[in-house]
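Reviewer 2 asked us to include a model.

Predict the structure of this chain.
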Amino acid sequence: MDKTKQPLGPLAGVRVLEIASMIFGPVAGQYLGDMGADVVKLEPPEGDLTRSIGPRRSPLMGSFFLSSNRSKRSIVVNLKTEEGQQVLRRLLDETDVLLHSLREPAARKLGLDYEALARDNPRLIYCHVTGYGSQGAYAGRPAYDDIGQAASGLAQLQSVIAGQPRFMPTILADKVGGLHAALGIVAAVAHRAMSGQGQKVEVPMFESLVAFNMFEHQWGHCFEPPLGPMGYQPVATASRRPYKTKDGYLALLPYSDDNWRSFFELAGEPQVMDDPRFATFPARQKHFREVWDEVERQAARKTNAEWLALLSQADVPFSVVNTLEDLVHDPHLESVGFWNVAEHPSEGLLRYTASPLQMSASPMQMTRPQPRLGEHSAEILRECGYDDVAIERLTAAGGACRGKDA
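Predicted model (structure tokens):
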């Protein structure tokens, strides 16, 4: 990519060393890379596990990896060797942000505990993404997305729909955690710019998802003693779902009094708003089940096309129920350039999503295509002071090398 024609990202000049696999850490790293940071992804000789997940045109370049590892460089380092440990030390000397998902015993064994690193580099920003954090009753437990959804109460909430706990069909815990990690790192970079001090940023999946879940569901337990049970019932109910029309499904969410009045006028039954249960926001909150039953009755009277024609002329929130495939050709996403297609040096044409963050002065954008395993090993080693002879010696010793796809 021709970087001379691209505006600098807000994190230009910040180097991130990512030692993380799967989704939690790599999602955070991709956000930082799209913000202009130089993200160096350190991988073992076999590569990130996600390289082997999903459709692929080349070995170790699966779709799962491609979706969360753009805007990065890849170096292969065997941290089980003395030579690899030496490379790690050199990399850390050039690092502003260490982002890792190693469990604490493994990190300490590698000398990657915060206290040791901060003594040598007090400006280092150290971000540890983890299941449960380093403190508390569950400290050190392993956790992945299913565990996070179960522990946070999210799986139990699905019982109102499925009759028993269910996982959401998306890796929500990892992605919510990744967003928190990126936010924490950006805040730490801003703090360092003001104070000159680095810090440790710990992002536990469990607490991240509980906090995410409790915005609305803490409910009566916002108060001490509680003023009611937990759970925001208008959303934690099987009645909350897309509504069946004559020929499909539609999401409808009138919100204000004007919205509701407009909806029933469009439905041809404006007198419904004369019912005290429907007339005001507090009344609709109290009688939400009756309200949604009435919406369901009205929705079934018209086709999707009829509703779209009516609702498009009003200010009533609505949407068709898209499939994943529909999103590729969604008119709005197409009009804002959300989908991008770019030529990858080895994988051909790839489709990727733009960042939803719109920043006028320092836009987020892909700065590099997704790296092949170990693609930048020699380049990064030279930046750390190794000459070609030393690089060959490291490769022969198994400390650092190109990956298995080289």
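The chain has a mean pLDDT of 92. DSSP finds 19 helices and twelve strands in the chain. We have added this to the supplementary material.
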